Amino acid sequence: MNNRVVITGLGPVTPIGTGKSKFWQSLIQGKSGIDMISYFDVKEYPTKIAAELKNFDYSNYISTKEANRMDKSTQFLIVAAMLALEDSKLKITEKDSYSTGVIIGSGIGGIETFEKQHKILLEKGPRRVSPFFIPMMISNISAGEIAIKIGAKGPNGVITTACASSTHALGIALKLLQRGDAQIIISGGTEAAISPMALAGFCKMRALSTQNDHPRNASKPFDKERDGFIMGEGAGILILETLQHAKERNANIYAEIFGFGMTADAYHITAPAPEGKAASKAMEIALEDAKIKPSRIDYINAHGTSTPLNDKLETLAVKRVFGEHAYDLKISSNKSMTGHLLGASGGVEAISTALTIKNDIIPPTINYNSPDPECDLDYVPNESEKKIVDYAISNSFGFGGQNGVIVLGKYHD
């Protein structure tokens, strides 16, 4: 069995907007969600900026009592999932329960909960640690919480592969649907890691930008002046269905998901491999899986983190796969606006890619002002572009050298 798989619902919860319309309008208008960190005192940190999810409101979907027993990453995810289900007009019934799965990506899970409860342990002792500490903290609980909320009894799990987590989750969801293990899968990712410990760790790695004076201009993928990524937070959920199931209920289809590829650099715990060979191989595998020639790809939603090494090597990997066609491709990085949502980035960027295909508008890479001779492709600088996009790929590359690529395209009956 090799079912076709389509995207029928979108639920972004991001620093530039919650809900499909707000998110998309901010993207194509080039709005940045990056600002000074407000969650805690950052005066001793070299990086003082992030893309926080301001004014987050869960009250339409989660009671205060429930929210108090959830890490923020799970709160983000449930809101994103419910938005996606509403967008898809999908109702999960008892009849659908065992054919409905939840496959989520999260790089860090409940780190904020861990930090808060550790502080309580040190200051007040073990008797004051919350009985909900473990289920709030563990990464897999988010998928379990969605399943409980909507009665999804099919395949369920969380993938943790750093910044490739939710692209890997989408790829695994695709394979489960293709082989008939489910008819519906709620997939994507979530992350809420803007916390004192996580920020300190990334700062010590020197992975983050220190351009604190101009927060909205600090994330500048592929630009010569880039100096590190900006932490972001949020969730991105897509409703994936077999084409047959979607057609039976006359669902709105945003795009079809055709292929998936994953590889490992097997090189270094944080640095991407020289020459981008494994990243390019992941793209090649995804294209082969999709049965689509490289020359048919119109757009790449780049991993594009705004770090010196990543952007140079992703550019090299694209050239390796696409040859001369690389110079005809449109490439852009949502992270220039959203910051880097870590394990949730692939889910949010898959939503962006599906909307790009549906609307034939390519979001820009903002803050692109100083061309880098080592990054010499078309990164759609600063303003969105109207262009027919029949096929696109979305790249995600994580610490540990874990690479994930998905191929999306226009749906044709």
Tell me what the structure shows:
- The chain has one domain (1-401): Thiolase/Chalcone synthase (Peroxisomal Thiolase, Chain A, domain 1).
- Strands 1, 2, 5, 6, 7, 8, 9, 10, 11, 14 and 15 form an eleven-stranded mixed beta sheet that branches.
- It is globular, with a radius of gyration of 20 Å.
- Helix 3 crosses helix 6 (141-150) and helix 10 packs across helix 11 (308-322).
- It has 413 residues and is an alpha/beta fold.
- It is 33% helix and 19% strand.
- Strand 10, helix 11 (308-322) and strand 11 (330-332) form a beta-alpha-beta unit.
- The protein is built from 13 helices and 15 strands.
- The model has no long low-confidence stretch (mean pLDDT 97).
- The longest helix has 17 residues, at 72-88.
Reported for the largest beta sheet, the result is: 11 strands, mixed
Distance between the termini: 19 Å
Helical amount among residues, as a percent range?
Answer: 25-40%
Radius of gyration: 20 Å
Q: Please identify, by name, the CATH architecture.
A: 3-Layer(aba) Sandwich
Based on Cα principal axes, name the global outline: globular
Which spans have pLDDT < 50 for at least 5 consecutive residues?
A: none
**SS content category:** alpha/beta
The first-level CATH class name:
Alpha Beta
Whole-number count of domains = 1
Percent in strands: 15-25%
